[in-house]
Specification:
heterodimer, A: alpha/beta, Rossmann fold, 4-stranded antiparallel β-sheet, 10 strands, B: 2 domains, 13 helices
Chain lengths: 236, 412
């Protein structure tokens, strides 16, 4: 599903080179729930940008669902994001004056799907996240934080992506709501979704089945989370 | 991205901040509105002048004595006051020209005219029976001067409606009355219909008398002892024949006056189209001036659009980042912002046209200035407003489309 081979990423400010990722190699199989964990400045966000096809590595290869994403142009990357990836952000990033359904259906606008079909797909995605149906046609700024994040998850699911990428999805939520959102991810994973969760909080990472630790641009550990394995065995 | 979705997205973006959208649009409304109104005023003036010229006659070619001056100066000094065109020239042209429908010689001068204690100062034109045909003149009562009256040198007069009113008042029938021109008595035999002309071509304030009478009793012969005319008017059969007739007139007169070089001719041949184009060039300049002043306000409106779009792009940086992260291409983003700008200017343009139309109606209503809104200026206004949307929306849209999605998503 995901294969990262010797990925390097550097940023240049003038002549000064900042190496953010230094030789990162790992792979993620279909249906996995992986947490990428590390402190700020560790390179986990850069890792997420590369996994999410928002950025390309300076060196190394990244295969997503069989596509070599490393060497694509901006518009080709946009196509990959449109078809293969669903993003969930810390700040939700919903269109405030649009209804829940319109927010969820937004990615389908760029996929040129007809309006009726968009609404059907949006409602289907919303049902997967367990948002109360009475909220579907509310404006998104009338929702609570937990509801907003579930709308954002539904938006990430609506194009049926190969990979769900969540960047600190609980960062703006209190512990209790964060727990609800994380259990939403767990149930989506139980239905077979591949999920990558980026976080700096150990408690959050513990909800995943596999935890990859990154520090100073290198993987320092990659292990199965025994707790989740016991509690929630993998589908196969 | 589908076109219908594009409009949907743009529409909802524009309605988010209605006050700002309305104010920005106001700039375009005022710009387009004033362009429409100004061009309407210019066009109205042009139409009025052209109608005035057309009322002088159709397919008209006029020959005046005096040297030709520079190109475009149809009022050259000395023109009309010299006496080099003779009655013999008139007769020679009448027999020599083909492709004409009518021709008349005229001898005109201003005189003090009196009748029963009232008097007026007006143009007295000595002419023949062909005048009405050449100048599209119709009779209100009585009849025009006949060939018989010219041959007999009858002291009869046909008066214009303005003269009638000045001398007798319109309640008194004019036909049969007597008027005195330069001490000579004339019997009124007809009154012409009003042509409604005003200004430099007032066709109503005139008196017509037989040309033979004007030549013998009022003017007398010129220095060479010949009877002269102050103008010859020729009506060509159709507009296509005008150039040929003009050339024939010039050739015949050059030959008769023994002049080899057309540049030193002692007469001027003007065709009505020249007069119209000379007058039009004046009104065109006038229209251009007005339109360019209005155009400046349109430009300012366009800059307002650009300003708003740049602000919008900055405000919606995160939204742009989000749209990119869910798969919008550069093209999708730039098209969306461009559509917003064009939608804004197009709506503004539409309202502006209504506004300009209203403004020119008010103008006509309160000042009496004639205005005319042409389909051309409306089309132009629509085109220009859409163009302004594209022009001033392009840079902000490009800026939006080039945003790096990672940085855009982090933007606070």
């Amino acid at each position: 599903m995901i294969q990262c081979e010797h990925i390097f990423k550097s940023y240049f400010a003038g002549d000064v080179e900042t190496k953010v990722l230094k030789d990162v190699t790992f792979s993620i199989a279909d249906g996995e729930f992986v947490a990428i964990m590390g402190p700020s400045g560790s390179g986990k966000s850069t890792m997420m940008h590369i996994l999410g096809a928002l950025d390309t590595p300076t060196q190394g290869k990244y295969f997503l669902d069989g596509h070599d994403v490393g060497k694509l142009s901006d518009d080709e990357l946009a196509g990959i994001r449109r078809k293969k990836i669903g993003f969930v952000f810390q700040a939700f990033n919903l269109l405030t004056r649009a209804t829940v359904v319109r927010n969820v259906a937004l990615p389908l606008v760029y996929a040129e799907i007809t309006k009726n079909q968009r609404e059907q797909l949006a409602e289907k995605a919303l049902r997967e996240t367990g948002l109360d149906e009475s909220r579907y046609y509310h404006l998104s700024n009338q929702l609570s934080g937990g509801q907003m994040q579930r709308v954002a998850i539904a938006r990430a699911l609506v194009n049926d992506p190969a990979l769900l990428l969540a960047d600190e999805p609980t960062g703006n939520l209190d512990t209790q709501t964060g727990e609800i959102v994380l259990s939403t991810f767990q149930s989506l994973n139980a239905q077979g979704r591949t999920i990558v969760l980026i976080t700096h909080e150990h408690d959050v990472a513990l909800h995943a089945k596999r935890i990859i630790h990154i520090r100073d641009g290198k993987i320092i550990s990659d292990e199965i989370n025994q707790r989740q394995r016991m509690a929630n065995p993998r589908p196969e | 991205m589908k076109t219908s979705d594009l409009f949907q997205e743009s529409y909802s973006a524009l309605t988010v901040n209605k006050a700002r959208t309305a104010l920005t649009m106001l700039g375009i409304i005022i710009g387009i509105g004033s362009v429409i109104a100004m061009v309407a005023i210019g066009q109205g003036a042009k139409d009025a002048i052209q109608a005035n010229i057309a009322s002088i006659g159709s397919n008209l070619i006029s020959v005046s004595p005096g040297a030709q001056r520079g190109v475009g100066t149809f009022v050259s000094s000395g023109l009309g006051s010299s006496q080099t065109l003779t009655q013999e020239d008139v007769d020679a042209l009448r027999s020599g020209l083909t492709q004409i429908s009518a021709l008349d010689g005229e001898l005109s001068r201003r005189y003090q005219v009196t009748a029963k204690g009232t008097n007026t100062n007006t143009q007295v034109i000595g002419t023949d029976s062909n005048y009405p045909a050449v100048h599209n003149l119709n009779m209100d009562s009585g009849s025009f001067i006949t060939d018989q009256q010219v041959a007999n040198m009858s002291k009869v007069a046909v008066i214009g409606p303005t003269v009638w009113e000045d001398l007798f008042g319109t309640s008194t029938p004019a036909v049969g009355q007597t008027i005195r021109i330069s001490g000579q008595q004339f019997k009124v035999v007809g009154v012409t219909q009003s042509k409604g002309g005003s200004g430099f071509a007032n066709q109503d304030d005139m008196i017509f008398i037989p040309i033979s009478v004007a030549q013998h009793y009022l003017a007398g012969p010129n220095a060479d002892g010949k009877l002269y005319v102050s103008a010859i008017s020729v009506s060509a059969q159709n507009p296509g024949a005008m150039d040929a007739v003009q050339q024939q007139v010039t050739n015949i007169l050059l030959q008769r006056h023994n002049i080899g070089n057309p540049a030193s001719a002692d007469f001027t041949v003007q065709n009505q189209a020249d007069i119209v184009s000379a007058a039009s060039s004046v009104t065109n300049t006038f229209t251009m001036l007005l339109a360019s002043i209005a155009g400046i306000s349109l430009l300012v409106g366009g800059i307002g659009i650009m300003n708003m779009m740049l602000t919008t792009v900055t405000e919606r940086t995160r939204e742009i980042g989000l749209r990119k992260s869910i798969g919008a291409t550069r093209h999708d983003i730039s098209l969306q912002f461009l559509t917003e700008a064009v939608l804004l200017t197009f709506l503004g343009g539409g309202i502006g046209i209504l506004f300009g139309w209203l403004l020119s109606l008010l103008m006509t209503h309160f000042t009496g200035t004639q205005t005319a809104i042409s389909a051309y200026s409306v089309m132009l206004a629509f085109g220009v407003s859409a163009g302004i949307g594209l022009l001033f929306g392009y840079y902000p849209a490009r800026r939006a489309s080039r945003l790096n999605p990672i940085e855009a998503l982090r933007f606070e």
